Amino acid sequence: MQCLSHIRVLDLSRVFSGPWAGQMLADLGADVIKVERPGRGDDVRQQGYRARDAAGNETAETSSFLAMNRGKRSITVNVSAPEGQELIRSLARNCDVLIENFKSGDLARYGLDYESLKQVNPRLVYCSITGFGQSGPYSHRPGYDPIFQSMSGLMSLTGNAPDEPGGGPQKVGYAVSDLTAGFYAVIGILAALNHRDHESGEGQYIDIALLDAQFAAISHIAMNYLVSGQVPQRMGTASPITCPYQGFECSDGYLMIAVGNDSQFRQLVQLLGMPELADDPRFTLNRLRARNQKELVPMLAAAIKTQPVRYWQERLDAMNVPCGPINDMSQVFDDPQLQHRQMLVHMQHPTVGTIPQIANPLKLSETPVGYHRPPPVLGEHTDEILAEMLGMDGAAIEGLRSRKII
Hints:
The protein has 17 helices and 13 strands. The protein has 406 residues and is of the alpha/beta class. GO terms for molecular function: CoA-transferase activity.
């Protein structure tokens, strides 16, 4: 048994945030039923790189879909048709959780909003994920990850300073606001299930906004501003409050060094052959080093550039000074620590064959994460779900298919 083996989730979401939440619930054992549009499916079935089968031929499966839909069963339903809406209501009656990321108000037109489905299943935990939330002056707006990175302040923090090469705002290199919202959604769902099962006996509505989630995740940086009144500036890989705490160029690549206290700084400069810097009144304390890093960093950088990454990493590791190479993706997968932690797993897919998957990082001692189903082919489980959950026979299912409801 897994933590959520008793939970069934109806996943009406698309693209990244909702599917990411659904995949995490599936990894923990939930039966996640992914509802997709007939013929086309989730938008990300058309995004990303096409996976190739064992013979090297492109398949219909994309890297984006494979990244966040394992563990689910796929059913295709035409939600815009009244019969399709009734199917969703019937499925929701037998589920614990519903996840959706339609624009605010869209599902109410179909009678599939929380207030409507609460009437057929009072125990349903209903999680809506939208760009701006269900209320407020922007609630009607669509949006994608870069919009929330920009509006939350994240892009103002990311990138090099304006007076440096390549200076200016940059977005984080992945859809961080989508995945952050997905994490918050899982927390909210688990909290609501706990309250239902141990307190109220009833479900509730969860309103998640990508803008809210990304803003909240900025956390201590926002608090730095609230406490100091100073608007944070872009500093590349460096930190405004700790130094040296940034990437350094070595003779064959880049190394991130994160000195967290004064004793680590003393060890670093001893290694670099500049022990006098530890007693320099400009650099004796972390706050002083942060204030004077324009004077300090060039001296350190000149010494570090003379040797390769591995040279410095081995010596800094021996001194317990935190550091790590700035890896590209090919190097990440060769990292012995990630290999030891089994962060890459493989599954058998019905059309692609063996597919790689980025593992769930949760390590649970008694109810470990499981990888029971690969990301589904579009509509792969339609007949199975309708027969199992709604008791439909083959003729009834074929009737729905002939009327283009499934």
